[in-house]
Amino acid sequence: MDKEEVMGIRREFPILERTVAGRPMVYLDNTATSQTPARVVEEIKRIYTHEKANVHRGVHTLSQEMTDLQEQTREKVRRYINADSVEEVIFTRGTTEGINLVASSFGSRFKAGDEVILTVMEHHANIVPWQLLRDRTGIVIRVVDIDDRGVLDLKQYRSLFNERTVMASFCHVSNVLGTVNPVKEMVEFAHSKGVPVLIDGAQASPHMILDMKDLDCDFYVFSSHKMYGPTGIGVLYGKKRWLEEMPPYQGGGEMIGKVTFEHTTYADLPFKFEAGTPDFVDIAAFSKAIDFITEIGVERIARHEHDLMEYTQARMRDIPGMRIFGDAPEKSAVISFLVGDSHPYDLGLLLDKQGVEVRTGHHCAMPLMDRLGIPGTVRASYAVYNTFEEADAFLNALMRAAAILG
Ligand code: PLP
Fold it and tell me: Which of 203, 208, 332, 377 to mutate to test the pocket of ligand 1 (most atoms within 8 A of CB)?
């Protein structure tokens, strides 16, 4: 992408014009959440100003218009991920809720001693729901390790499958190491053993072409706010045959067929899993975020981010004491690092004082930090609107911070 195009994109993000500590802000915390283009914010405002009515509840015009907007987004998501049917697209509060839903509902069929395979690079969102299930049912959690570059040990992955294995659940892209896992190959292997797979796509959905038919996974989850969309909503994709068999996750309005005190029947898919009033305003506005991504092209976005990462990493390696965590051949635009023995918070504060917004800490991946033998890292991550000038500003700020910390 040339500079002019990126500058054009930046004009959709007024927040990128702000200053921090008296300097132009350099926002490099895109892995945590990406910024939101004006078209999404305007759509939220337009709906609150002119369109708001509860969905699926009324014959009146506003309710029908709002329902159409919500369902158009569902169809747009279906196309974005190439799912078979909108019945397989469930709106959630985000990645975390999607995984909890699967662990709780699909997991209700698991028995004591059944085994679920995770990896050491999982976000807490793909660990704790399985531990809650373990506490309820007595399942056993098995964990796949990584090598020094942050690449999954696939040999170990394959060796963990046995007759007790009931599920494999892993991230598409690590939020700390940037490692892009060979998910298609991993799904194929799991399926050859008759084991269903959930993929945590929180860090893949803004950067990759997603094709559920090709990937053939059983469940896939992601969040809107990491895709230039509104906060508070996400998507669970699930294969229809599983979703039909699974019990509801929560009960309430919207998810029922007929209710009596003796017996309740449930709504058809996808509504069976959408109890209560959905976040219909943000769901409708998410549609504009998908337009934003698809107009530029997700592959072009990923290439631009990757170029920025390669440029930055190459220069970071010249800084004395620099330790970069994650060197997988397939890597997303995430750079986790430490300088010498400096604490990540000290580095983060010194960068903030120079206008550079990066994340510090364990990144909700404490088991991975333990595996790496560190308390945390500093993490810089790129999005489509970042520029090479910002990469330079980050590098200069980092060199100054490293010099101060000795
Ligand atoms: N999984 C991964 C890999 C993530 O990076 C994140 C968020 O950073 C999550 C899950 C949780 O996403 P959310 O907080 O939007 O539910």
Answer: 203
